[in-house]
């Protein structure tokens, strides 16, 4: 058992804004750091400070703004991963206010490979350990739980692709009589390697992202628990070690009062505050001595993390802190929370258990042996014959026993009298054979020795023939092995070539199947699929949406170009292309090195044969001097092997990076589509409202809108930042004329806002020289447009309806006249 208090670390998020006064003092002797905030006694920035000026908090280590993701992994996550690999449970959780960098620390940034967070790095580390530790057999399973408004959801549930969060089956907690927690409806997926595990992480993250709506930015207001279940066993042992590693990204810890939200957001904030409040209660209860009742059951999060808090687990907390001046109160409250957490003592146990299947096999064997022993002691005879396999095994055993020069060696036959009898008769046969001269070569006779009969070949001849036979057998098995190896190499080479020229190997889950298309062709899919209006854009595999109206496609192109992260997407694409070229070159180098090794081996083989033949001809059994040619060949082989190994290592690392970049790109695309979808529907609603307000009518009244639809619309470009106004050709077509793609183009809503900033959504993009934003401006009449949907077919239907209606109206008009 390992007794340990929860380890606490602090990480300060980089900022360009004015920061509060803070300092970090690293105390090497006591292996800790102190984070100090100095808050002047004034009312600046709303923080009423009438208490003290300096707030000092002690952590295992404080990471300042410049800390890199690999430092965080090495110092915080690696020791926890090591203890998980050794069979202890581990938890790392990030706590801090919204935007302080919890997700960045736990999962990583969505843009650069170097921004990988604790989860992908830990997965990499764990699978590397699996492949390097030949003394144990490992397996890993993954689960990914999201807790939103006190309800649990399985982020790896395939139904996510077609549902909103609320429509999914809820994960529920069940407790057994031993007070162990079980989570119903939470899938636990096996992942055989790092690639599969990363795919699951990305699948969960993408599901998390696409389930969000502007009103429900669940990523900020939900808790997420990514769990790696590790199982290990020494080969042949029936003892299993099972451990869990929870990597937890908690919801933002800020208080409701400050954010001043209402409606749905208020409900969410209350739930967050409540669950964090229950977390705090559990922590306070745990830090109090002699407290018998710990209120774990109050919330789902504390129930799930029960072991991590005061239980069988090695737990680490990362307090993420924003040092922006306006956040100083939240930062201080985060640090205070951490100080309380640091008082909690956990008792981690080595999670060993017996594998029931192996235990049964072992017990069966033991029963059999005991039965045999009993039969021998009681003199009871077994009637049944030895099986063919048993006889064969006995012959092998006896042969090995006889051939072994060690006088101490024993023949372990167990208590079965039938086996003992049979072994004795085998031995008798050998001795008789030896006595009759069958084994007079000094070699011990074997069970298969044929006793010599009159007229049969002389023993020397038999021996010679047997030697030749043995030699041939050896040659055949060498050849068969060579053939097998060559076949495998050819298969490997073909697979590698296919990977680096065509694409990925076969994959298993849905995300993999989406990423399994040829990588280069994936990159060449420069045009991201525009989401369709009807239905959702949830499915990850929906790469190419249905046919779109021109306006929508055009709007999407502008939206994409003007996004803040479009540069990163392009950068990543360029980087991916570069990495592919590198991987291809490395793949070729690996193949070349392997061919060279094979060629050198052949040369060496030829040389050895030549030397042996020469030795035979000259009557020299063993050459006295080492052959310099042979030595050089051996050195060359070693060098080539080294170069092969190092190039292969680089290729493997590059492959991981490529896969990660592909998944980042994939996620960016899904996000782009989702953001566009959101923006599009927001703009449509806004336009409708404008129309309604301008006409003094309810925007919901389509009839009224259609009645007041103008017969002329003008398409202009907004002034660019340089001040020029570009007039596009003025269209003077009646709406009642047949709808064309250009008709639809006129209904492109406002241009995109910068990424993720809802406040800036209505601002024109600030990127100079990119003001090609299309806007519908009315030239006449109070209302200028029909609220089209952007879906070609639906829009055509609407326009056809307008046409029919106008025809009808004009006919009625002329009839009345
Ligand atoms: N150490 C860092 N280095 C660079 N960028 C960072 C760092 N920490 C956070 N960021 C960036 O700050 C933004 C907010 O971070 P993040 O989403 O991780 O915050 P959070 O605490 O998880 O917020 P929420 O509670 O809303 O989920 C992101 O754009 C992220 O990339």
TrEMBL record:
- Polar residues bias (residue ranges): 687-725, 765-774
Q: Which InterPro entries match?
A: KIF6/9_C (IPR056524), Kinesin-like_fam (IPR027640), Kinesin_motor_CS (IPR019821), Kinesin_motor_dom (IPR001752), Kinesin_motor_dom_sf (IPR036961), P-loop_NTPase (IPR027417)
Gene Ontology terms: cellular component: microtubule
Q: Which segments of the protein form a coiled coil according to its record?
A: 360-397, 583-610
UniProt-listed Gene3D superfamilies: Kinesin motor domain
SUPFAM superfamilies registered for this protein in UniProt: P-loop containing nucleoside triphosphate hydrolases
Pfam family of this protein, just one?
Kinesin
* Protein localization: Cytoplasm, Cytoskeleton
Q: Which UniProt keywords apply?
A: ATP-binding, Coiled coil, Cytoplasm, Cytoskeleton, Microtubule, Motor protein, Nucleotide-binding
Q: What is its main location?
A: cytoplasm
Residues involved in ATP binding:
96-103
GO molecular-function terms, A-Z: ATP binding; microtubule binding; microtubule motor activity
* Residue ranges annotated for the Kinesin motor domain, each copy included: 5-344
Q: Name one GO biological process term.
A: microtubule-based movement
Segments carrying the region annotation (Disordered) are 432-463, 528-547, 687-794
Give the source's domain of life in one word: Eukaryota
User: So what family is this one in?
Assistant: Belongs to the TRAFAC class myosin-kinesin ATPase superfamily. Kinesin family.
Q: What is this protein called?
A: Kinesin-like protein
* Native source organism of the sequence: Megalops atlanticus (Tarpon)
Lineage of producing organism: Eukaryota, Metazoa, Chordata, Craniata, Vertebrata
């Amino acid at each position: 058992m390992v007794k340990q208090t929860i380890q606490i670390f602090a990480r300060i998020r980089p900022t360009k804004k004015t920061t509060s006064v803070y300092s970090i003092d690293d105390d090497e002797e006591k292996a800790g750091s102190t984070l100090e905030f100095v808050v002047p006694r004034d009312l600046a920035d709303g923080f009423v400070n009438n208490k003290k000026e300096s707030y000092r908090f002690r952590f295992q280590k404080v990471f300042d703004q410049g800390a890199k993701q690999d430092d965080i992994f090495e110092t915080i996550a690696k020791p926890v991963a090591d203890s998980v690999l050794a069979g202890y449970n581990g938890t790392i959780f990030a706590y801090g206010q919204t935007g302080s960098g919890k997700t960045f620390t736990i999962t990583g940034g969505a843009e650069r490979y170097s921004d990988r967070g604790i989860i992908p790095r830990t997965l990499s580390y764990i699978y590397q350990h699996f492949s390097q530790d030949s003394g144990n057999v490992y397996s890993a399973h993954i689960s990914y739980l999201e807790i939103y408004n006190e309800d649990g959801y399985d982020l790896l549930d395939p139904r996510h692709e077609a549902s909103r969060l609320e429509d999914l089956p809820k994960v529920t907690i069940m407790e057994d009589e031993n007070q162990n927690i079980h989570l119903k409806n939470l899938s636990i997926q096996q992942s055989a390697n790092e690639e599969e595990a990363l795919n699951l992480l990305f699948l969960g993250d993408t599901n998390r992202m696409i389930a969000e709506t502007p009103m429900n930015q669940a990523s900020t207001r939900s808790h997420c628990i990514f769990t790696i279940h590790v199982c290990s066993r020494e080969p042949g042992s029936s003892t299993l070690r099972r451990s869990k590693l929870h990597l937890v990204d908690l919801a933002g810890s800020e208080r409701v009062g400050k954010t001043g939200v209402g409606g749905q957001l208020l409900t969410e904030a209350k739930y967050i505050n409540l669950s964090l409040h229950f977390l705090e209660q559990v922590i306070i209860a745990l830090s109090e001595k002699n407290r018998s009742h710990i209120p774990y059951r109050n919330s789902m999060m504390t129930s799930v993390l029960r072991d991590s808090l005061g239980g069988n687990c090695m737990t680490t907390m990362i307090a993420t802190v924003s040092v922006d001046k306006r956040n100083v109160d939240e930062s201080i409250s985060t640090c205070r929370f951490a100080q309380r957490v640091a008082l909690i003592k956990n008792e981690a146990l080595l999670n060993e258990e017996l594998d029931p299947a192996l235990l049964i096999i072992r017990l069966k064997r033991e029963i059999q042996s005991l039965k045999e022993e009993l039969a021998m002691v009681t003199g009871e005879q077994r009637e049944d014959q030895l099986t063919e396999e048993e006889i064969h095994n006995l012959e092998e055993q006896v042969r090995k026993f006889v051939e072994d020069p060690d006088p101490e060696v024993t023949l372990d036959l167990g208590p079965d009298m039938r086996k003992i009898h049979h072994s004795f008769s085998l031995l008798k046969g050998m001795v008789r054979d030896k006595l009759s001269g069958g084994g007079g070569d000094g070699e011990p006779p074997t069970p298969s020795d044929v006793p010599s009969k009159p007229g049969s070949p002389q023993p020397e001849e038999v021996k010679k023939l047997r030697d030749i036979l043995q030699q041939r057998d050896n040659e055949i098995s060498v050849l068969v092995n060579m053939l097998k190896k060559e076949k495998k190499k050819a298969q490997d080479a073909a697979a590698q070539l296919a990977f680096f020229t065509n694409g990925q190997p076969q994959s298993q889950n849905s995300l993999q199947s989406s990423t399994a298309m040829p990588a280069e062709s994936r990159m060449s899919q420069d045009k991201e699929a525009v989401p369709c209006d009807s239905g959702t854009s949830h499915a990850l595999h929906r790469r190419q949406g249905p046919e779109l109206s021109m306006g929508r496609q055009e709007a999407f192109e502008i939206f994409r170009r003007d996004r803040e992260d479009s540069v990163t997407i392009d950068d990543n694409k360029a980087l991916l292309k570069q990495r592919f070229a590198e991987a291809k070159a490395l793949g070729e180098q690996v193949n070349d090195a392997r061919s060279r090794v094979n060629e050198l081996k052949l040369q060496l083989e030829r040389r050895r044969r030549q030397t042996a033949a020469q030795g035979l001809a000259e009557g020299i059994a063993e050459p006295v001097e080492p052959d310099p040619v042979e030595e050089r060949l051996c050195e060359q082989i070693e060098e080539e092997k080294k170069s092969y190994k190092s190039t292969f290592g680089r290729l493997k690392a590059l492959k991981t990076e490529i896969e990660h970049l592909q998944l980042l790109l994939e996620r960016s695309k899904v996000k782009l589509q989702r953001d566009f979808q959101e923006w599009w529907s927001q703009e449509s609603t806004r336009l409708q409202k404008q129309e309604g307000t301008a006409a003094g009518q309810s925007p919901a009244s389509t009839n009224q809108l259609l009645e007041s639809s103008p017969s002329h619309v003008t398409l202009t470009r907004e002034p660019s930042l340089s001040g020029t106004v570009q007039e596009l050709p003025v269209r003077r077509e009646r709406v009642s004329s047949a709808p064309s793609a250009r008709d639809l183009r006129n209904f492109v809503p406002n241009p995109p806002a910068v990424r993720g900033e809802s406040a800036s959504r209505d601002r024109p993009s600030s990127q100079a020289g990119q003001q090609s934003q299309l806007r519908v401006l009315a030239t006449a009449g109070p209302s200028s447009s029909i609220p089209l949907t952007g879906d070609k077919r639906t829009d055509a239907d609407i326009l056809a309806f307008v046409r029919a209606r106008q025809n009808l109206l004009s006919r009625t008009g002329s009839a009345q006249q």
